[in-house]
Amino acid sequence: MNTPTRHPYLDHPGPIAFAHRGGAADGLENTVAQFRRAVEAGYRYIETDVHATADGQLVAFHDATLDRVTDGAGRIADLPWQDVRHARVSGVEPVPLFEELLETFPEVRWNVDMKAEPTLGPLLDLIARTGAWDRVCVGSFSEARVARAQRLAGPRLATSYGTRGVLGLRLRSWGLPATLRPSAVAAQVPESQSGIPVVDRRFVRAAHARGLHVHVWTVNEPHSMHRLLDLGVDGIMTDHIDTLRKVLQDRGVWV
């Protein structure tokens, strides 16, 4: 992997191992307890998601509602933080504020998926207030949302492509014309879509030619991890943090 570093966030020797939601396979996704387990396992990059409560508090949580993974219920956007804070993931662990995560794990770099438009302002305000510009990369399925974040924050903010940006890069890899946002530092893509591999050698080559990292989610099988690393991807996001660590250790690139 010889991709030039376009932002301090990406300053890391070797492929980046991302703990997806802290390691969602353990059943305590997006909780302080699970993030701590990932950090104790040696992870320094963690993927998480953010939603804004009705009173503008930014919580680390994937779903729009509490119902699937907690003993609470309701849309986070409709609930005040006072209500959300009492919900327990798997009936055990509280839902954390993203600010709490920045404070609790000062050595960690965070890949943050903005799940809805109301997260944009509070997230940029928090990054600015805590001086966490080098510790956070912001992404979203919405290219428009992440492009707005980039315009507001400028080059201090590391961003990845949204769906439209990834499609443009895919077209470029086939030699077709497409407009690409020049400010992105990474293309973060699924391992496959509808059973068809998304990442191939042409895609990786096209990204690297533009100085972009390629980070692939969510990869849980060792053979897929090896295939992607052989293609030269720059990072892998996994629910199975012990599996990815072993793969990277076996290849001599675990840092």
UniProtKB/TrEMBL annotation:
Residues 15-248 form the GP-PDE domain. Transmembrane segments: none annotated. InterPro entries: GP_PDE_dom (IPR030395), PLC-like_Pdiesterase_TIM-brl (IPR017946). CDD domains: GDPD_cytoplasmic_ScUgpQ2_like (cd08561). GO terms for biological process: lipid metabolic process. One of its GO terms (molecular function) is phosphoric diester hydrolase activity. It comes from the Bacteria. Pfam families: GDPD (PF03009). PANTHER family: GLYCEROPHOSPHORYL DIESTER PHOSPHODIESTERASE (PTHR43805), GP-PDE DOMAIN-CONTAINING PROTEIN (PTHR43805:SF1). This is Glycerophosphodiester phosphodiesterase. The lineage of its organism: Bacteria, Bacillati, Actinomycetota, Actinomycetes, Kitasatosporales.
